[in-house]
Amino acid sequence: MIHLYKEQDLRWWRFCYLLPMILYVYACDDGAQMAQCTSDEDCREGYSCDLEIYVGDCIQRRQVQACGANYCIVGEERCQDNSCVPLVEAGIQAGTEAGIQAGTEAGIQAGFEAGVEAGIQSGTEAGIQAGIQAGELIEETNEWFLESSIQTEMRLLRPQEELDVTGFVRSTNGGVPVGALLKFVVSSEYSSDRIPSEFSTPLDVALDADGAFSQSFNFSEPGVYAITLEIYDTQAQGDQAKLQKTWLFRVDDFVKVQEAQLHLNQQAYKYFALSMPDILLWLQSIDESERAQELHSLFAELKASSIDAIRVFIGRTQGAYALRMANGIINEPQIHFLDFLVEQAGLNEMKLILVLADARREIDSLDVFLAEGSLQNPSPEEQNQFFTSVEVQSVFLNWLDSIMSHINPLTNLALSEDPSILAWELFHLPKWDLPSPLSPTVLSDFILDVFQEMSTRAPHQLLLSGELGLDYNPTAYQNHAQVIDSLMLSSLLDGSQGGAWSSVRMQTTGNMTSRNVVSGVSLDSNSLRLNRLNQSLDWLSFGQAWLRGHALANIPSYRPLVVHLSRVNRSILGQETASVWRQWIQEALSQGYSGITVGDFYLSSLSLNESSWSLGENADHRQNTLNMLTDLSERFRRP
Prior knowledge:
Layout: E1 2-5, E2 27-28, E3 48-50, E4 57-67, E5 70-73, E6 77-80, E7 83-86, H1 87-141, E8 144-148, E9 155-157, E10 163-171, E11 180-187, E12 203-205, E13 212-217, E14 223-233, E15 243-251, E16 256-258, E17 261-264, E18 267-268, E19 271-275, H2 279-284, H3 288-304, E20 309-313, H4 332-347, E21 351-357, H5 367-372, H6 390-404, E22 407-408, E23 413-414, E24 421-427, H7 440-457, E25 462-464, H8 479-486, H9 501-507, E26 519-524, H10 536-554, E27 561-567, H11 570-573, H12 577-590, E28 595-598, E29 601-602, E30 613-614, H13 619-637
Parallel strand pairs: 9-15, 19-20, 19-28, 20-21, 21-24, 24-25, 26-27, 27-28, 29-30
Antiparallel strand pairs: 1-4, 2-4, 3-4, 4-5, 6-7, 8-10, 10-13, 11-12, 11-14, 14-15, 16-17, 17-18, 22-23
Helix pairs in contact: 6-7, 7-9, 8-10, 10-12, 12-13
């Protein structure tokens, strides 16, 4: 838009526009000339002569722009906040603002650069400090941890079996610990003298670049060994291990029959055992939290008395403690205690002889097998069908199969696979020590048939019959039979009580019977009617003749010979009881017997009689009994 102003007073003429559509504002040039003009030539430079509105005046034409309600002269004024400001003042203002802006930006830039520098400096210092603190925190919380392929549960090894203990040690930050020192320490509660010489002192092992370690072990002697890995921090103060882990390894093997002797780990083996009929009941009477410690203490006492094995009756079929329920079902709550006993026996280097049944009705009976074989409430004569009925034998053999193949959840082994079980004994006491119409061949055939089945189920464990040693032919005993006859006990060897000992011995020489069958006799004062012998000298004479005669009769079988159960009557012998036992044991030793079991020893006083002993809570009496057992067991080991 163009406005025309008179030169003299431009400010006054700003209101002189008349119409919105006028494109020019005319300013009169009153001071430019004294007379009216007639042409542009009459006006000075920058003005023109107006002949229309301001006729005869020199007018200056200027371009303007709207600024709110005002118009600013282009080139001379600037619109600022809806007001016209001369360009000089506006320039100062704009310059100031621009300067401020530029200065601000420059200041920011300079401040940024300076700030960066200062930030780097302060950040570095703060970072170093924070790093130190963080490093200290990491040092405090950077724990080590150990991982190994070997589980902590008990593991069974055979002698000389190679064992590789491998794993790695790492820190929580993922790196290999600096300054880690590894030591393997081998120990044993009962077998420290069997630890190989190379493991008798701590063994240093180094970590590789990845933090891994590996060490091989093997043990030639049976025993329970603890391998402890101790990890030390050589950069820390003190000598306490930073990490420690222990593995238990049970090195064990089955006792085998070799050259008419028992052998364990290729060495001649003899055992001295206690008959403890109530040990499973005793375990149930102990609080679960104390059970393991109580049993460990018992085993420790027996080991200190040189006891190698415990004879345990597991054939209960009646009452609350029955292991076998109707139709051959295993009583799960009761089998738990047997599982526990077997596991702890292995951990304490104790062998077990498990007795399967009682034909004499002293602890249990065979009635449940007869009943399930369709013979309810049998008379004494009908009870003999246990040995002749195929159906009854099938029920009995099924039970043997169930218990022998039972998997112990504490060891993950079937009972027939566990070396802690030294032997399975068929009968606690046989029934044919009473007058019986059964012929010797019937009895021997029964024993051999059952042995064949048992050997199939438990090929690595010893098999004992539990026989008393009764016979029908005194010839094999030679002059020792005459001594027995002189003591008025000839019926033990004349077949009148159904004895079949020689028949069994002769038939076991063939290949039909497994080599894990062991010959055995008993020296049970009650079953052999020794209670009629009043003098201790007669007891000694009988024991000598009985043990020598059976050793002589057993020679053709070429099998080991053991004493299944030796019991004496204390009410008759009194203080001579221990002396009679010593003489019997020395005789068994001289005749080459491989094992002997003495009894009965009860952990409670409820079942005591004249042929049993107490290992109860009475400290003095208990210690006296243990001292007697120590003397007996050491006599049996003398060369």
